[in-house]
Amino acid sequence: MLASGRPNRGIKLSSLDGLEKEEQPEILPFTFPLEVKEGQPLQVGCTVMAGDDPITLQWYKDEMPLQSSSEFMINSITSRMNMLIIQGATSEHSGMYSCKAFNPVGQTGYSAVLEVLEKPDILPFDFPSEVQEGQLLQVSCTVTRGDDPVTVQWYKDEKPLSSSPQFMINNVVPRMSQLILQGVGSEHSGTFTCRAFNRIGEASFSDDLRVKEKPEILPFNFPKEVQEGQLLQVSCTVTTGDDPVTLQWYKDEIPITSSPKFMINKVDSRMNFLILRDVSAEHTGTYSCLAFNPFGQQRSSGQLWVNVPPRIIPFHFEEHIRAGSLVQVICVVGEGDSPIDIRWTLHGEEVRPKLGIFTQRVGERTSILSIDQVGSEHRGSYTCLASNHAGRTNHTETLWVNEPPEIRPFQFEPELLSGSDTQLQCYIIQGDPPLHIAWYFHGQEVSHVMGVSTMKLGSKSSILNIEHVTHGHAGDYTCVATNRAGEARYSATLVVHATIQFAEPPRIRPFSFEGELTSGKDTQITCYVTDGDTPLTIRWYFHGQDVSHIMGVSTVKLGSRSSILSIEHVTHGHSGVYTCVASNMAEPPLIVPFDFGGMDLFEGGIATATCVVSQGVLPMTITWTFNSGFLQSDDTRKIHSFGGRMSILTIEPLSDFHRGLYGCSASNRAGHDKIEAELIVQEPPLLMPVNFGEFEVYEGDSVQASCMARKGDLPMTFLWRFQGALVTPSTIVRIVNLGLRNSLLSISSVEAHHQGIYICEVTNAAGTAQYATDLKVNEPPQTFPIDFGSDTFYEGDFAQANCVLRKGDLPVMFQWTFNEMSLLASDSVEILNVGGRTSLLTINPVRGHHQGNFSCIATNAAGSTRMGASIIVNGICCIGSIWIINTISKSWSSPVDFLKDYYFFLVMCWFSFSSSTLCQTNLLITNNCYITEPPQLTPVDFGELTFFEGDLAHATCVLRKGDLPIKLTWMFDGKELFDSDDIQILNVGRKTSILTLDPVQAYHQGTYSCSARNDAGTDLVETQLVINGTEVI
């Protein structure tokens, strides 16, 4: 834009007398700059180059005289020169400026045109205060002033926008642009700015669009593998969405409230924790967190599966089970995850149908064990084992089969002469111990008074002995055997003959074994010499060889005429012909070789040896020796003599002390004989104590336990078990057998899962021994990350953080620190330990001095861990500024006032005619505080144009911008409002205040205003309430 100047010639006067003419003023031409922008300071000088004094100067704008003012400063330098100063040019300053000079001769003038180039100016626009997702919005940006050409550009959050389906821009005319938002969502929220540009400058106007959002929840998940007893914690966090937001937890669509079973810890309105302690099967299910506000809701769900090991409902066999009956027992797995494997074992071996034991699976959780005809071979410990992916368990019960006694038939010799001796043996073929054996004569129990004696021979045999039989002994003799399973009876009739007949050679009564014998049974047979002179010698032979060389076969002479052959645990090797040979020649003693049964004998059991003198004349002396020393009856060893040819040694209970060589010696007038037998007592293992040492064990340590058998027969088998299951060697866990009696378990690097019960199990032929030891691993604590739900808080906020132990040994001590200093409870800081695994830090209210780093330190015997979180407090601070100019200082409390003065001084300095060195400035601003943001409120209204008396009216005052704390105040016609019967003021949070009139009355009509004030400034919005039918004055 060009500025032009032209002279204004006045009247020139001449002298009438021809003298020198007087001169009118002449002005030095001046001009304005060609391009003058708004705000630009200007000065132009009017200088009179010629003309007679006195001269007067005057400035005009558009022919209107100018006077010195705040808008135009006229500075008279001399009588011939002055300056016109415009501090900040605006469009209103455009026009024709003239300087006129007057003297007595005449006047002259000079003019120049000033045209100020105008930058754009934008008509304010705004978005609706309540915008919900999905709405259609349209705002217009109109340029009301400014030189062409003008360019309009839209921005969102300082980023330029171009027309798209998300942001449609319609340029109606060069000076008007429309922004259209279709289906607004949370992504549209932000600050929208319209900027208008021309070659002079630019203008902008901004407004915030706040789309009311429904809540959005951060998804959560439970761990895939969760075992019973664990501690679980999941959080429900609302990442976006408008307040107020409400959170609610559900399990399987049923609302959850905080309880010992489900602990809900609310951090703030947008975050809470669901804590499950000691989870069990009942915690399995679908957990949902529902977040809702007035604009919608969202749900996030997670599935929790608790791995539950099986649990067997205890079962029992019946107490009294008779042989041959049906036995059934049911193993039911009451709890545990599917699939479940159920097996049965007997004495550690899996049961099979060939043993007559059957199992049947009924559904997934039940197994039935059946024995159709139970017998003694079915006795033992039955174990039901149940296993699934979470673990295994078992339950064991012992089956006792009560087998009634059965007596082997017996009889007296048919022709028994008066005065002779006789014996009967009542032998129990089968039946459960303990057995009670009694003899009866005509229904009455026999006694020694009758001349009849009985003797218990082992646990299954009783001998009835009658010496010098008389006719009074004739009759029926009955053996009665009883146990808890039943009773058995067998009788024999004794017939006594009056005359005595002697036969020269001995005569043996025929004998035979019982019909069919099964392997493992016991049997006896009696060789009775009915006739022949005494003394008699009776010998037994098997296939022509003396039976003393046959394992498991023993003979016992009863009286002078009877010998009993006993075979314990019959085998196929015992099959054959047995011969009894009786002779009555006078002979020295001959002892039948004996042993202790030829079977394994164990500590705590019973051992019996029978010394029978098969030949030799009476009287005879029988004695016992032990390891070549004379042996007499004592507490555990009993010696019983029967007649003159048999002595029985019984040892009960057996112990390691009884091991050795036992001898039986027999002597008569004809000679001496001795037989020895070794007693071997099978000794089960006896273990030394097993432990991992007396020192505390930590993760990463190396430990070992030694299992040593102090006693016990070899060979031995060593097994290690952990929590009932066999230990499988690995690179970490090693098992080394040291010699024949020691096994070493070592763990090179202990971890938490190694903690538990370890059992050393040692087995030999005599039995099994176990020793258990507990390995306790001191596990250092591990906590979940902590946070306050937000990094930034305002003064007066509520802040809370949880420090929750995820794993580690108890007890655990929690300590909170602030900026590496120990944090103690105070008026605004509360520390609460919940149980033994959680510590809760609460800060209420938050203050500026709470800004910093908070840490939770968890410590136990094994170590410590630390988790930290920070708090930033948006506090209020003062401006402290000092401006020094020409040695004059000034301070301001408002940054706005400071900037105004600062700009003014810069302009004045720029236009000063002094040298630049005379205009020196120093700006000192303290660097320890922040400039706060003054409040900005959204428009407020009652929603309706008019109301009727009795209606309900409410208006909401919402803070759009501004630093907290801010005070919100309602006023009516300029006077502050307070709660009353029909006026309620509700502050929602710190940025919203709701005014409610209920009911509306005529006197409520007027102007309502909401003011917001903080230390940085104040904002005020107003609205009218019109009552229908009320005259507005």
From TrEMBL:
Main localization (coarse): membrane
Annotated GO MF terms: cell-cell adhesion mediator activity
Transmembrane segments: none
GO biological process terms on file: axon guidance; dendrite self-avoidance; homophilic cell adhesion via plasma membrane adhesion molecules
Stretches assigned to the Ig-like domain: 25-117, 120-212, 215-307, 310-402, 405-495, 506-591, 603-680, 685-778, 781-872, 935-1028
A Gene Ontology term for the protein's cellular component: axon
Topology versus the membrane: Single-pass membrane protein
The UniProt record lists the keyword Repeat: yes
Keyword Transmembrane helix: yes
Pfam name, any one: Ig_3
Keywords, sorted A to Z: Cell adhesion, Disulfide bond, Immunoglobulin domain, Membrane, Repeat, Signal, Transmembrane, Transmembrane helix
Location of this chain's protein in the cell: Membrane
SMART domains recorded: IG, IGc2
Protein name: Ig-like domain-containing protein
Species annotation: Halocaridina rubra
